[in-house]
Amino acid sequence: MSSTTLTDWLRARDDEALTEVLRVRPDLATPRPADTTVLATRAGTRASVARAAEGLDTFTLAVLDALLTAGADKQPVPLEGLLDVPPERLKEAADTLRTMILAWGEDDGISLVPAAREAGGLYPGGLGRSSPSLTDVDVSVLLAEIEDDERKVVTALAHGQPVGRTKDAAEILPLADARTPIQRLLARGLLLRVDAQTVELPREVGLAVRRERTGALTEPTLHTATNKQSTVDATAASETLEVLRHMEALIHMWSDDPATTLKSGGIGVRDVRRLTKALEISERQATLLVELAFGASLVAETDTVIPEWVPTNHADLWLAASPANRWATLATAWLDLPRLPGLGGLRDGKDKLLAPLSEDLRRPVAPLERLRVLTALTDLKPGTGIVSPDELAAVLAWRAPRRGGRLRDEIVRWTLTEASALGVVALGAVSGPGRALLDEGAAASAKRMAEAMPEPIDHFLVQADLTVVAPGVLEPHLAAQVGEVADVESAGSATVYRVSETSIRRALDVGRTAADLHELFRLRSRTPIPQSLTYLIDDVARRHGRLRGGAATSFLRCDDPALVAEVAAHPVATSLRLRRIAPTVLISPVPLLEILDELRAVGFTPAAEDVDGQVVDLRPTGRRVQTATRALRRPAGTRVADPEQLSDIVRSMRAGDRAAESRRSRPVSPSSGGANLAEVMALLKTAIQDGSKVWIGMVDGHGSAVQRVLIPVRLGGGVVEGHDPTGDDLHRLPVHRITSAALVDD
Prior knowledge:
Elements (H helix, E strand, L loop, with lengths): L5 H7 L2 H10 L11 H8 L2 H8 L4 H12 L17 H13 L3 E2 L6 E2 L2 H5 L19 H6 L3 H11 L4 E3 L15 H8 L3 E4 L2 E3 L2 H10 L11 E3 L2 H28 L2 E2 L8 H11 L3 H13 L3 E3 L6 E4 L1 H8 L2 H14 L29 H13 L5 E3 L2 H11 L8 H15 L2 E2 L2 E2 L1 H8 L2 H11 L8 E2 L4 E4 L5 H10 L1 E4 L4 E4 L2 H9 L4 H11 L6 H13 L10 E4 L3 H9 L2 H4 L3 E4 L2 E4 L3 H10 L41 H19 L15 H14 L3 E6 L5 E12 L2 E5 L6 E5 L3 E6 L3
Antiparallel strand pairs: 1-2, 3-5, 4-5, 6-10, 7-9, 8-9, 11-12, 13-14, 14-16, 15-16, 17-19, 18-19, 20-21, 20-24, 21-22, 22-23
C-alpha cells in the first residue's frame, strides 16, 4: 500500500498531468506556484478544496464521501469494495479526484487531502454520528421492517443533511405508543434524539440506506425531442421579433414618461404594471425587459434630486441598428448580466419585495449558472431539445449537487424561460444563432439570426375599416412610414395597424403632406384604397396647420424699429439666425449669451433682461460638465486558460523543484545596502568561467519568491544570462532581483 506524500506524487506526474491540474483548478495557478511543494500546499487549503468539490457530480462525491468515511484523509485506503458499484466506475471517479488532486496514490492505497473533511461541512460525507446501539447490528434487517412513511424520513436524511427539526423529538416513546414516523424511528433506534426539537440519522443507517439506493448514483434520464434545426431557428426568430418590439416600445415609453426610482432602489410596482398594461405582457416578462435594457446600457438612472430611469444615447444607436444586430446586443447583455431577473417581484426572508433594477437582484454568479444551463443544451445534437425543464434541473443537480444554493433548480427554469424569450433557445433546443453566440460571439450570431429571420416585405393590405395589415415583417423604412400614419392595434406574425384622425395628424406634424400619404397607400397597398381613407386624409390635411407655433430660445426687442431693422440687415443676423416677427421684435434659436457677445463684437450694445424686464448678468459662474449615466457591464463566463501559459507555469515549477533538490555550497546574499552584491557578482563570474551550475534565489515579476538552477554564460548590464540544465532555453534574470546565490555541487 502506497504512503507517498502529495508533493512526491505530484513531482512524479508528467507535465501533461500537471497542466491538466492547473486547467481544472485555475485558482492554484494564481499567483504562480514556485514549485510543486507550493502547488500541493495550495491544493490542500479548505477554500480551494471546497471550490473544486462544487464541480463534482453526485457519484464522484459519493466516492469522496466513502473515502472520508474510510478515513482516507488520515491514511491510505484501498479503492476496491469502497461502494457496491462496478469497479470501472469506481476507478473513473478516483481518476477524477486524482486529476483534481483532491486525492492521490494508486488504487491499492488512495489518500485524500485533509481539508476534504473540513470542506464537507459540519457533517462530512453527509453522515451523522455513530450510534453505539447499532454496532454489530444488521441495519438492513431493521430497515426492512419500517413503514413507507418512516422510509421517506430516513431516505431524506440519508441523502441530505443528517439532522432535522421536529416537535416529535420532545420525548422517546415505546414503539407501541409511537404514532408518528419520527416517534417510531426513535423507538426503533434508527434516529438519535439531539434535543427536544432536533433528531439525527446515525451513520450506520445513512450508509445502509445509500447502499440500498445505488440508483441515486446514476445520472437521471433526460428525455429529448428532435426538430429540424430550421424549425427551431424560425421559432427563435419569431420570439426575437417580439422582444425587439417590446424593447422599442419600452424605450419610447420611458422617453416620454420615465420610471421613478424607489428610495430603496429599482422601480416600483406601479411602473411595472404600467409597462405590462401598455405592452400586454406579464410582470415577469416586464422585469426581464427592464433588466435587459439596463444590462445593454439602453436605460440608466439619472443623477437628479428625484432619480428616474431614462433611455441613454446608446438607445438611439440600438434603434438605428438592424433587427439582427439589435438581438445580438440584447442576447450578449443577457449572457453577461450579473443579475437574476427571475427574482423580481418575489419576497426575501424578511418579506421585502425584490424590485426590478434594484441591488437585491444582483448575483455575480448568475452568468456562470446561466452558461452552465446553456452548455448542457449545446451538448445535445443540433435540433434536439429537452422535454421538461424539471428533468434538466434534476440532471444539472446530479452533475453538481453542491452548486447553486437554494435557488439552484429555479435558476435552471428561469434561464430556460429567459433564453426562450430571447430566441437563444426554442422548442427546448439551442437555436442556431444561440449556438453561434456561445461559440463565436455577437457578430457571428447576428449574421446567423439575420438568416433565420423572415425576409422583410414591401407591401401591406388596407382594409375597408381603416386598418392596415402587414402580413409579415415590413422593411425598416416602410415600417417607419406606416408607424407615422397608423397605430399598432395587434402584433404577431401579422401586424395590424389602425389609421385614425390622430395618427394622420401625427404624420402631418412630422412634415408629411396629404400627397405623400396618398402616394404611400397607393404604391404599397396590395388592396384597393377605400374611399373613406382618402376622404379622411384630405379632411385632416385641410384643417392642419392653420394655426402655427414655433420655438425660440432668445429674443431681441427695441422700441426703435429702425435699430431693429439695422440689426436684421447686418451680416451677423444670418449667422445668429435672427428672424423679425414684428417691427420691434427679433427671435432666434441661438442662446442669448452667444447673441449678445456677437452683437457687441460688431458694435452694438445690447443688454439681457429677465421675465420682468430687469437687466441681468448672464456671465457664467464656472465650468459645468454633464456626463451621461450608463449601466455597468460585467463580463460573464470563465476565461479559458491559455495552454501555453499553463505549460510555462509547469516548466517553472519543474525548475523550482530542481533548485530545491540541488546540493549547493553556502549561499551568499546581498545585504540591504548592497555591500555583498560584489560577492554575488564574483560567484556568477566564477561559474561562467568554470561552466558551473548556480543556484539562484530571487523574487520574480509577480512578487513571488522562486528558486532556479542555471548555467550562467554572460553577465552584464545588470542581467545574468544562462541556460536551464535540462534544456537550451536562454533565461535572463535581473541581478537586482537576486536574493541569494550558491554554487551547485554535482
